[in-house]
Specification:
Rossmann fold, Ornithine cyclodeaminase, NAD(P)-bd_dom_sf, 2 domains, globular, ODC_Mu_crystall, six-stranded mixed beta sheet, ODC_N, alpha/beta
C-alpha cells in the first residue's frame, strides 16, 4: 500500500492518520513488538490512569489518557450498540497524540482503526507467551466483526494455525471470515460452541453478555483469550472455566474494576482476588510460566488499557518518519 506523507504536527496542526493510513503504516507483528517494548521499558501498567466511562443517549463515551516518556495521549471512544443496525461501526472516536513535555498536539488517529490494531496485538502478545512455539494451533474464534478479522491476522503473526473454526451468531459473517482465513492459507470452516473441545486456542471477541460456551469442554492444555467486554456485568467465559484456569490480565487493578469474566465469579465466591496468576508484564518479563506441562487451561482476560493505545499510536507516528520534538 502506498502511504501518503504525514504532516508533522507543527504549525499546520496535528498529523492525521485515517483508517487506511494507520493500517498501512503498522502491521500486526510490529504492533505486538511495540507493546512488548513498552512493557520492557516500564513503567508499571498498574499505574496507568483508569478508564472513565460516561453513559450517553447513544451508548457510552470512554476517556483513556496515558503518558510515557516523550509522549502523552488520550483516546475518546464511543460505544454505540445501535450503530450496526444503522450500517455504522459500533466503536467510534479518535486518539490525540501529544508531545510529552509540552502537550503540543502531534497527531490525530482514527480511533476504531487504532483499537482494531491494538486489541488483537495485545491478545497475540499473550498468546505468544501462553502457547507452545513450533506447533500449529487449532483455533476456535468467536465473533465475525472487525476484531475477529484483526485477531486472525495478529495470531498468524505469532503462531502458525493448523485450522480455524469460526463461531458467530451471524452465519453469513462467520462464513465470510472462514473464507478470509482460507485465503490466508488456514483451513477454516464455521462451527458451534462445542468445537472448543478440540481447540488448542479459543479466542472470544464478541459483544456477548453471557458465556459463549461450556468451559468444562476446554482441554487442560488449551489457552483461552477473552477480549469482548470491559463491563463488570458482561462476560464471555463461564465461572467453571475461570475457576480452573490460570488467569492472566493486563493489570490487576483494571481487571478487578471492569472484567465481568472475573468479577462475576468473584461475587459468586467461586474465586478470590488472588486467583489472578499474573499480568502481561509478568509474561513478557519471564516472571510467569510460559512453557512446559499444563495442568490447567491458561486464560487471558483483556479489558483494554490506555498505555496500550499510547504504545501503538506512538509506533504508528514513528513509522510515518515523524518524531516527538519540543
Amino acid at each position: 500500500m502506498t502511504v501518503p506523507p504525514a504532516r508533522t504536527g507543527g504549525t499546520d496542526g496535528p498529523a492525521w492518520f485515517g483508517p487506511a493510513r494507520t493500517a498501512g503504516l503498522l502491521g500486526p507483528a510490529a504492533a505486538v513488538e511495540a507493546l512488548a517494548a513498552a512493557l520492557r521499558a516500564g513503567p508499571d501498567p498498574e499505574d496507568c490512569p483508569p478508564r472513565t466511562a460516561v453513559s450517553v443517549p447513544g451508548g457510552e463515551l470512554l476517556l483513556m489518557p496515558a503518558a510515557r516518556g516523550p509522549y502523552a495521549g488520550v483516546k475518546i471512544a464511543g460505544v454505540a450498540p445501535g450503530n450496526p443496525g444503522r450500517g455504522l461501526p459500533r466503536i467510534t472516536g479518535g486518539y490525540l497524540l501529544l508531545d510529552g513535555p509540552t502537550l503540543r498536539p502531534l497527531a490525530l488517529l482514527d480511533g476504531p482503526a487504532l483499537t482494531a490494531l491494538r486489541t488483537p496485538a495485545v491478545s497475540a502478545l499473550a498468546v505468544r507467551h501462553l502457547t507452545p512455539a513450533g506447533r500449529p494451533l487449532r483455533l476456535v474464534l468467536f465473533g465475525s466483526g472487525p476484531q475477529a478479522y484483526g485477531h486472525l491476522d495478529a495470531l498468524l503473526a505469532v503462531r502458525p494455525l493448523a485450522r480455524a473454526v469460526v463461531v458467530a451468531r451471524d452465519q453469513t459473517g462467520a462464513g465470510e471470515l472462514a473464507a478470509y482465513a482460507r485465503g490466508l492459507g488456514v483451513p477454516a470452516r464455521t462451527g458451534g460452541p462445542g468445537d472448543v473441545a478440540g481447540a488448542d486456542l479459543v479466542v472470544c471477541c464478541t459483544s456477548a453478555r453471557e458465556p459463549l460456551f461450556d468451559g468444562g469442554l476446554v482441554r487442560a492444555d488449551a489457552t483461552v483469550v477473552a477480549v469482548g467486554s470491559h463491563e463488570p456485568t458482561a462476560r464471555e467465559t463461564d465461572t467453571g472455566l475461570v475457576r480452573r484456569s490460570a488467569v492472566y490480565v493486563e493489570s490487576r487493578a483494571a481487571a478487578l474494576a471492569e472484567a465481568g469474566d472475573l468479577l462475576i465469579p468473584l461475587a459468586q465466591g467461586a474465586i478470590g482476588p488472588g486467583h489472578i496468576a499474573g499480568t502481561l508484564a509478568d509474561l513478557v518479563a519471564g516472571r510467569a510460566p510460559a512453557d512446559g506441562a499444563r495442568s490447567c487451561p491458561q486464560l487471558f482476560k483483556s479489558v483494554g488499557t490506555a498505555w496500550e493505545d499510547l504504545a501503538v499510536a506512538v509506533a504508528v507516528f514513528r513509522a510515518a518518519g515523524t518524531s516527538s520534538a519540543t
